[in-house]
Amino acid sequence: STDECPICTELYESQGDRLRALLHCHHTVCQRCLAALQQRATDRSRVCCPLCRQKTPLPQWEIRSMQEELMSHMGTSSPSTPQPTP
Ligand SMILES: [Zn+2]
Ligand SMILES: [Zn+2]
């Protein structure tokens, strides 16, 4: 079956950490393992497939969302939305 991540052998899910991510080489890994691959990569703009070593450039939005997630983990207080004064 190709419905499980080859790295962590967990089944893919339609949402959350186990979303299926398709690489350029047509291998698939889950989002969680993709994030781990990216963290270990020297060049964060692309990940190296653990199965065939082919590199896949990551879309900008994905890098951004990961950076935002990282920021929230670091405990940076996000600027609160200005409250309209009556
Ligand atoms: Zn995985
Ligand atoms: Zn591959």
Automatic annotation (TrEMBL):
Top-level taxon: Eukaryota
Annotated RING-type domain residues: 5-53
UniProt cross-references to Pfam families, sorted A to Z: zf-RING_UBOX (PF13445)
Keywords: Metal-binding, Zinc, Zinc-finger
Entry keyword annotation includes Zinc: yes
Coiled-coil segments on the chain, per record: none
GO molecular function: zinc ion binding
InterPro entries: RING_finger_E3_ubiq-ligases (IPR051435), Znf-RING_euk (IPR027370), Znf_RING (IPR001841), Znf_RING/FYVE/PHD (IPR013083), Znf_RING_CS (IPR017907)
Designated name of the protein: RING-type domain-containing protein
Source organism of this protein record: Lepisosteus oculatus
